[in-house]
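hey can u check if this looks right to u? its 230 residues, i copy pasted from the old doc so theres a chance i mangled smth
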Amino acid sequence: MDSNVARLPLFGGPRAWQFSDWTSVDDRVRGGSSYSYMTGSPASPTARFHGNLNITTLGGAGFASQQTTGENRTWDLSHYDGLELHIARGDRKHYTFTLQNAALPQGPDGRQQSNLVWEHDFLAEDEQKIFVKWADFTPTYRGREKTDAEPLDLTAVKRMSLMMRSFFGTQEGPFSLDILSIAALRFKQYRDYQEDDEDYVVVDEKSGEESNPPKSRGWFSGLRECCGLF
């Protein structure tokens, strides 16, 4: 299969993890108590996204995330078909991967400024490769799906992030996700995967096949629902 796939390594894999590439954006900026880290050692090919999701402070809501650093970074992914997350070990919890076309700085109050976000939820189990097509990323704004959003500009992806969130109180406590690599993939003869493609797990939110994460309503939807923040 690999002979039919072109990869652009983004993090990990043949590119060593640089933890200065990531920074925490947790619900503490909104009065919560959750926290997250992205850690590893020079001798290990794996990065660990871990922390604690506290949903009591915000009444059942909460989030903890790591996002890429640098307001001037840009990835051109327009020649690729989607992203591959190579998971080394999961904890059977649901996570969210996001993309943005803008890297807005924090506001004077320390809060992340509102921005259009494309997101995809996935279930992290044992070692697996999860391929996410661009069409499977859902545009959201302030926690709501934005059906009239312009398409994601794949020539200018400015920010990526990994998130753990409560999904309206269904997840809480310690979490840990070990990641070997994140890469963009292009298939020389693009096709949908069949059941015999054992090397990959295709996550399709529309069909619900392979995993069925709780219904997502955006980055801070749990906060909006429980605390009326938006």
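Residues 193-212, 219-230 have pLDDT under 50 and may be disordered.
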